[in-house]
Amino acid sequence: MCDMKFVTSETAWCPGCGNFNILEALRMALERLNKKPHEVLIVGGIGQAAKTPQYINANGFCGLHGRALPAAVAAKIANKDLTVIVNTGDGDSYGEGGNHFIHNVRRNVDITHFVHDNQIYGLTKGQASPTTGVGHVTSVQTAGTINEPLNPVLLAIALGAGFVARAFSGDKEHLASIMVEAIQYKGYALVDIFQPCVTFNRINTFQWYNSRVYKLDDSYDPTDRIKAMEKAMEWGDRIPIGVIYREEKPAYCDKIGFLKEGPPLVDMQVDMDKIKGYMKDFI
Ligand SMILES: Cc1ncc(C[n+]2csc(CCOP(=O)(O)OP(=O)(O)O)c2C)c(N)n1
Ligand SMILES: [Mg+2]
Q1: CATH level 3 topology of 19-280
Q2: Hey, which of 35, 193, 228, 271 would disulfide with 245, CB 3.0 to 4.6 Å?
Q3: Cα of 238 to ligand 2 centre, how many Å?
Q4: Closest-lying ligand 1 atom to the alpha carbon of residue 116
Q5: CA neighbours within 13 Å on the CB side: how many for 230?
Q6: Which among 89, 84, 18 is positioned nearest to 51, based on CA atoms?
Q7: Helices (H), 93-212
Q8: Average pLDDT of 21-36?
Q9: Residue ranges of domains in the chain
Q10: pLDDT tens, 147-182?
Q11: Ligand 1 pocket, 46 CB below 6 A?
Q12: Pairing mode, strands 239-246 and 163-168
């Protein structure tokens, strides 16, 4: 259990939703890292998962659907001292926000991305998302989903992400420990979290994940990229959870001199006379 520092009001999630454990694990992780609410920014887009910023006592921002990452990136570059964490859905992250996801990996801004992956569009009542399995019948895909699902973990490793993990909201302790590692990682960190949607996904239930997930142990080496890609492709009867890939690489703000050496941009003085001078050219 966590103390009350990061706790806010009631949520609008269904009873039994996998989001509750993710929220609780996030609070546990922030407390373990000794973060104070004003040092943290939680960013979401639109969706059930994207409501997370409203349920945690920290700075919060909800962007447009699929636009959580650009807002988070901008906030981090403007204030490099902030701990910026994106909490949003699989649709928001990989569907509508898919292009941002790809280019965000290339930039390697020091933000953390927790995807509440319920393999469905929850807020809009259960249409197929990019991670929905083939054959899954929904209110729109009435004959079963025909498209192959996206594998976000494999894609992130292929794109060159330095921290890529999978977790399960049914194992709160394990999830919280991965969250701590992801937040501490210097650069973009992705954690794809299995999050049963108890109302609109009756296939990928707590039981479904429980009978398949297994934890990676110390014998697994997360620094071997090819092995990590093989691990990322394990799906079916056994699905690995844990840190799948890890590599240290320079983060965005460390590659730009004035961002690295100088104070956070928000603390810099703005010379209005200079700006007025530039603006004259446009009038
Ligand atoms: C540009 C745009 N497209 C579509 C929508 C409608 N919409 C809102 S939330 C959502 C799906 C959310 O699914 P996901 O991101 O997986 O979050 P969940 O609700 O499952 O947590 C959609 C399609 C929208 N608000 N804006
Ligand atoms: Mg979803």
Answers
A1: Rossmann fold (3.40.50)
A2: 228
A3: 22
A4: 21
A5: 8
A6: 89
A7: 98-107, 152-159, 172-184, 206-210
A8: 97
A9: 19-280
A10: 999 999 999 999 999 999 999 999 999 999 999 999
A11: yes
A12: antiparallel
